[in-house]
Specification:
Chain lengths: 112, 113
């Protein structure tokens, strides 16, 4: 079955540092890939997505590129802020089956 | 309301009891999803409704779990004979249709003691 593997957290960075959160997946065919974010006290929110190989999703300074050759969708941001502190989830879904398969989440803590 | 609303936000119940968890989706959203999130894990899919019907219930762990959406809006997740292992945050999400972004509620934290 499908699965998503994320790097374990917490990831602790200083403000303005470069962020990478690794995500790899196992799936048949060509799934769509997503990053969701959960800020403290809030529900899960879609951060960005990519629906085919080599697509780059971007939002709020975050980027991730769909790499089919390495089955990866790593999340990056050039300069993190304290307000980016949250839990980040990588996920995938297939056309025709709308259920999302999530990774276990990575907690990011950004210190001033 | 503006977002997906789940009630109650917290529920503590005794082992063996029956519980109902409610989800009010965003108005006009035809697709509705239930997920379960255990501590330290990502959400796991339970069931997906398109309108009133369950289009995919492959994630329900066993026959103690059941969900309904009788009028195509509000949904109720029902758990019979609760077990301590059912303790988790139950998340509901809705989307305008099956091809658009799903919006999540804040979840119901269920604790079985």
């Amino acid at each position: 079955g499908d699965s998503v593997t994320q790097m374990e957290g917490p990831v602790t960075l200083s403000e303005e540092a470069f962020l990478t959160i690794n995500c790899t997946y196992t799936a048949t065919g060509y799934p769509s890939l997503f990053w969701y974010v959960q800020y403290p006290g809030e529900g899960l929110q879609l951060l960005l997505k990519a629906t085919k190989a080599d697509d780059k999703g971007s939002n709020k300074g975050f980027e991730a590129t769909y790499r089919k050759e390495t089955t990866s969708f790593h999340l990056e941001k050039g300069s993190v802020q304290v307000s980016d502190s949250a839990v980040y989830f990588c996920a995938l879904s297939h056309t025709g089956r709308r259920a999302l398969t999530f990774g276990s989440g990575t907690r990011l803590q950004v210190q001033p | 309301g503006a977002g997906v609303s789940q009630t109650p936000s917290n529920k503590v119940t005794e082992k063996g009891k029956y519980v109902e968890l409610r989800c009010d989706p965003i108005s006009g959203h035809t697709a509705l999803y239930w997920y379960r999130q255990s501590l330290g894990q990502g959400p796991e899919f339970l069931i997906y409704f398109q309108g009133t019907g369950a289009a995919d219930d492959s994630g329900l762990p066993n026959d103690r779990f059941f969900a309904v959406r009788p009028e195509g809006s509000v949904s109720t997740l029902k758990i019979q004979r609760t077990e301590r292992g059912d303790s988790a945050v139950y998340l509901c999400a809705s989307s305008k249709d099956e091809n658009t972004e799903a919006f999540f509620g804040q979840g119901t934290r269920l604790t079985v003691v």
